[in-house]
Automatic annotation (TrEMBL), chains A, B:
Transmembrane segments: none
Homology family: Belongs to the ROK (NagC/XylR) family.
Name recorded for this polypeptide: ROK family protein
Organism, scientific name: Micromonospora globbae
Xref: Pfam families: ROK
Length: 313, 313
C-alpha cells in the first residue's frame, strides 16, 4: 500500500453504523456515523451500507487518498469465507451475499466479518490485548459474545458461529435466556440481565450502570445483584480460560464502562477460580465503540495481504 | 520422505508407553508397548523414553527402514513450542526439556506434544473426525480433557494448557473436583466420577462400565447415575460448541467404550441444547488407545514438513 492509500471500514449495528477511512498502520484518518434504520428491512439496510461505503470511498478520493479495499462488520452469524451475512436478529439479514454485492457496487476487494470478532481483532492487535498473542475479547452489553484471537486472527468456527460465550451454561435451572435455554451466562450477567434482576428485586427499573453506581454507594440490593453478576461472569471466564488458555482477557461492551467497579471484583473472583489454569491478565477494552470499525479495517488490510508489522500506532 | 522412511512415535502414559514406527501416509508398520513405571521418578522415566525411542530407531534400521524424526506425546502441561514437559501429575515431570534431551540422544528432529492434543490430532486427521475441518476431540476417562483441532492443527494455548474441558463449570456447588473447585465437568461425568457416584448411592463399588451395563439392564440407580452423567456431559459439550462451533465432536477415552449406550442418549441430550448453535456430528473415536501414539507420529511428520495429503490410509 502506498502512503495515500486507505481502506474503507463500516461496522453495522442494530441502531447505527460506525464508519472510517483507515491507513495501513491502523490509524484512522476520517470517521462518520450513520443510522441503520433496521426497521426498513434488510434490503434497505444493505442499500444504505453500500451507499455509505461508496460515499466514504468518494470522500477519500476527494481528499487525495486512494481507497484500496473495503471491510464490513455485521452482527449475527457471518460466513467470513463466503462473505455472507447468514443470519442476524437485529438487522434481519438472511443469507445476504454482502461481499459480492459490495464488490459489484464499489469495485474494491471486500472482506466481511462478524462485529464482535472484528472488535476482538482490533483490541488484540491495536488495543488492550496488544502483544499478548492469545487474547479472549468479551463484549458484555445487551448480550454477551466473545472473540478468541490467536496471533492476530479470530477463530470463526465451522459455520461462522464461534465465540458465543454468552450461551455457555453457568446457572443450571437459572433465568431463561433469549436463546430458549435456562442459565446461560447472558441470561444472568449481560447488562440487560443486570437491570432486569435489580428491577425484579427492587420493584423499580434501573440500568446496569445505575446498579453499578448504587452498589458502589452501598445499597444492599444493588450490591447483591452486582456480586451475583460478577460471580457468574467469573464462572464463565474461568470456563473460557480452561478451554482457551489465553494470556489476556479484554472486557468490553456497555457493562465494561463500569471500569474498576466491574474489573476489580471480577479479577478477584477469577483469581479464586484459577487452580491448574494459568491466570490471564484481565483488562478493560481500550478502543471503545470504535473497535468493530477498526476491526473491519483490519479485515480489509488482511484481505490485501498488508503485513501486520505496519500496525504501529 | 522416501519410501523406506518412518517416524518414531512414543505416547507416554501414567502406566504404559505406546510406541510405533509410522510411515509418511500415517500407516503403522510396527508397534511396541512398554511399562512407564512412573513410581521410579521422572528422571528414570525420561531415561526409559529415550531408551525405547532409540530401540525403535534401531529396529527400523534393522528392518531396512530409515528413521527420520521422533514424536513424543506426554500428559500434563506441555510447552510444544519449546519442547518442554512443563508439569504432569501422573508422571511427575517438572520442566523437563524432553525435546533437547531426545535430539542429543537420537540425533533426530523431535516434536513434543500433549497426549490428548496428539490423540485429537490423530482422530481429526486419520480417525473419526476425518474431513471435518473443525473437530473437538473429548477424552473421557479418569479425567476429561479435549483437543480443539482446526484444519489439522490442535490449539495449544498461550501456556500449553488449552482444552481443559474437564474443568468447565457445569454443576455450581456440585462434587469437588481434583483441581479443588466444585462442580467441574470432570467431577461429575468422568469414568471415575460415575463409579464414585454409583458407589455412593448403591453402597457397593462399581466401575463406569458396570454402571453403563446395569443402566442398560434397567437397574434404577444405575439408570439415574447414567442419566446424570449424560446430562452433565451434554451441558459441557453444548458450552464447548457455543465457543468452538465445530463440525464434529469425537468422544474417546474409557467411557466411550460404552458405545451407543453413551452416544445415543448424549446425542439426544446435546440436540435438545442446540438453539442458535449449528449442531455438530457426535461420533465415537475410531483409533482406540493408539490415537495418542499416531498423533505423536503426526507431530513428527509435521515437524519435518511432510504434506498432509500423504495421509491416505
Amino acid at each position: 500500500m502506498g502512503g495515500g492509500d486507505v481502506v474503507v471500514a463500516v461496522d453495522v449495528g442494530g441502531t447505527g453504523m460506525k464508519c472510517a477511512l483507515v491507513g495501513p498502520d491502523g490509524a484512522t484518518v476520517h470517521t462518520e456515523r450513520h443510522p441503520t434504520d433496521a426497521g426498513r428491512g434488510p434490503a434497505a439496510v444493505v442499500d444504505t451500507i453500500l451507499d455509505v461505503a461508496d460515499g466514504l470511498a468518494a470522500k477519500a478520493r476527494a481528499d487525495g487518498r486512494t481507497p484500496v479495499a473495503l471491510g464490513i462488520a455485521v452482527p449475527g452469524i457471518v460466513d467470513e469465507a463466503r462473505g455472507v451475512a447468514v443470519w442476524s436478529a437485529n438487522v434481519g439479514f438472511r443469507d445476504v451475499p454482502l461481499r459480492d454485492l459490495a464488490v459489484t457496487r464499489l469495485g474494491l476487494p471486500t472482506a466481511i466479518g462478524h462485529d464482535v470478532r472484528a472488535g476482538g481483532l482490533a483490541e488484540a492487535r491495536l488495543g488492550a490485548g496488544r502483544g499478548a498473542g492469545h487474547v479472549l475479547f468479551v463484549a458484555i452489553g445487551t448480550g454477551i459474545a466473545a472473540a478468541h484471537v490467536v496471533d492476530g486472527s479470530a477463530s470463526v468456527g465451522a459455520h461462522g458461529a464461534a465465540g458465543e460465550i454468552g450461551h455457555i451454561l453457568v446457572r443450571p435451572g437459572g433465568p431463561r435466556c433469549g436463546c430458549g435455554r435456562p442459565g446461560c451466562l447472558e441470561a444472568v450477567a449481560s447488562a440487560s440481565a443486570v437491570g432486569r434482576r435489580y428491577a425484579e428485586l427492587a420493584g423499580t427499573p434501573a440500568t446496569a450502570a445505575d446498579v453499578a453506581e448504587r452498589a458502589a454507594a452501598g445499597e444492599p440490593l444493588a450490591a447483591q445483584v452486582w456480586t451475583e453478576t460478577v460471580e457468574a461472569l467469573a464462572d464463565g471466564l474461568a470456563s473460557g480460560q480452561a478451554l482457551f488458555d489465553v494470556a489476556t482477557i479484554v472486557v468490553g461492551g456497555g457493562l465494561a464502562q463500569a471500569g474498576e467497579r466491574l474489573l476489580g471484583p471480577l479479577r478477584a473472583a477469577l483469581h479464586e477460580r484459577m487452580t491448574f489454569h494459568r491466570e490471564p491478565r484481565l483488562v478493560a477494552a481500550a478502543l471503545g465503540d470504535e473497535a468493530g470499525c477498526l476491526g473491519a479495517a483490519l479485515l480489509a488490510l488482511d484481505a490485501l495481504g498488508v503485513p501486520r508489522s505496519m500496525e504501529t500506532r
